[in-house]
Specification:
The protein is an alpha+beta fold. It has helices spanning about 20-25, 30-40, 75-80, 85-105, 110-145, 150-160, 165-180, 200-215, and strands at about 5-10, 15, 50-55, 65-70, 150, 185-190, 195-200.
Length: about 220
C-alpha cells in the first residue's frame, strides 16, 4: 500500500503528525489556525485525541522550537472526514486500510508479544486518564463557588500530593469531623464519577494533610 501520510507510534499507538495531515488535505488555512479551530470545534482532548510536543527547527538564524501535534488514528480519520473534500475522503480511507494492516500484524504476534502490547496500551491509557483528572481538579480550583474550598483530591493535586481513593475517604472523614466540631460549613461540587463530593476550607485541609504527613513520615 502506498504511503500517503506518514504514520508513527506514540505511547504504543499509531499516530499521525497533524502538520502532515494538514499538508495532504491541502487546506487553505494556516496550520496554526487550522489545528486550533478543529480542537475547539470538535472538542478534541489533549492526551486522548492528540498530544503536543516541540520539534526544534534549524534555520538561517540558528533554530527555533516548532509546536507539533500527534493525532490518534481515530482523530486523524475524523479530521479527514470533516474536511469535506476528495482529499479528506482519500485520507480517511487510507487510515482505515492502515488499521486493517495493523490488525493483521497483531494476529501474527505470539501470546507473550500480545500481552506486552496490551500492557503498553494500558499504561498509556492510565497516563492519559491521570492527565485529564489533573486538569479537572485544577479547573475545580477556578470554578468552585468558594475560592478557598477544595475537595480532598483537588487539594492534593494542586499541592502535588498523590491521594488514592482510600486515602481520600480517610482524609475526608477527618476533615468532616473537624468542620463539625468547629461549626465550619462544608460545601459540595458536582463530580462526574460520584455525583457530588464534599469541599472543605483550605485551613482545615492544611491541618488534616499536615497531620497525616507527619504521622506517616511525609507520605499521605
Amino acid at each position: 500500500m502506498e504511503q500517503l501520510i506518514p504514520i508513527t507510534e506514540q505511547d504504543g499507538k499509531q499516530a499521525v503528525n497533524a502538520r502532515d495531515l494538514h499538508a495532504f488535505l491541502e487546506s487553505k488555512q494556516q496550520f496554526g489556525n487550522w489545528i486550533a479551530n478543529r480542537i475547539k470545534k470538535y472538542n478534541l482532548l489533549e492526551n486522548q485525541d492528540f498530544v503536543v510536543f516541540n520539534n526544534f527547527i534549524k534555520n538561517l538564524y540558528g533554530g527555533r522550537p516548532q509546536v507539533e501535534y500527534a493525532l490518534s488514528l481515530d482523530c486523524a480519520k475524523e479530521l479527514a472526514m470533516v474536511e469535506g473534500n476528495e482529499r479528506g475522503k482519500k485520507a480517511r480511507q487510507y487510515f482505515i486500510e492502515c488499521e486493517k494492516t495493523l490488525e493483521k500484524v497483531v494476529k501474527t504476534l505470539s501470546p507473550a508479544e500480545q500481552l506486552l502490547q496490551q500492557a503498553q496500551l494500558m499504561v498509556a491509557q492510565e497516563r492519559r486518564i491521570e492527565t485529564v483528572e489533573q486538569k479537572m481538579y485544577a479547573l475545580e480550583a477556578k470554578t468552585a463557588t468558594r475560592s478557598d474550598y477544595f475537595t480532598i483530591v483537588g487539594y492534593g493535586t494542586l499541592n502535588h500530593i498523590s491521594v488514592n481513593l482510600k486515602q481520600a475517604s480517610s482524609l475526608g472523614r477527618k476533615a468532616s469531623e473537624l468542620c463539625k466540631m468547629r461549626g465550619i460549613e462544608t460545601d459540595r461540587i458536582p463530580d462526574p464519577r460520584f455525583g457530588e463530593v464534599k469541599m472543605y476550607p483550605t485551613a482545615v485541609l492544611d491541618e488534616v494533610f499536615n497531620q497525616s504527613l507527619s504521622q506517616k513520615g511525609g507520605a499521605v
